[in-house]
Amino acid sequence: MRKYLTLFLTALAGLAVVQSASAEKFADSIDQVPESVKPGFHNMQKNVGSNIPVTFIHQPPLVPHSIRTLQVTKNVNHCLGCHAPEVSPTTGAPRVPESHFLDRDGKRTEGTSPRRYFCLQCHVQQAEVDPIIQNKFDSIRQSQGK
Hints:
mainly alpha
């Protein structure tokens, strides 16, 4: 009986240690997670500031300027500082399209739709980088002979 009691108490103590270690590793909510992950940056393409042509249908437009100092997190979206509908006529930046204000059912939201809020998930900075794998991709302009 003493062996079982000792074994049970040892297992219980081990479980308590594991549980306290795992509690330190994971945050209880998203508000406790630090937003310190910095994206990788590359040298901008030489035609900074000009419109970069899309290469396929429904491609999100590429960003023709540096995004090094821009922050897009759950609390802050620096892109909307220039591209929001109220500000874009003043800044001259392209306005966020109407599709970014619709929820998945097509109903207009009060602000930017949560599924379209994180701009840098779709819109990327144009950069001079060598492809990881060489390919024979033809843009839509090349395939149509334009």
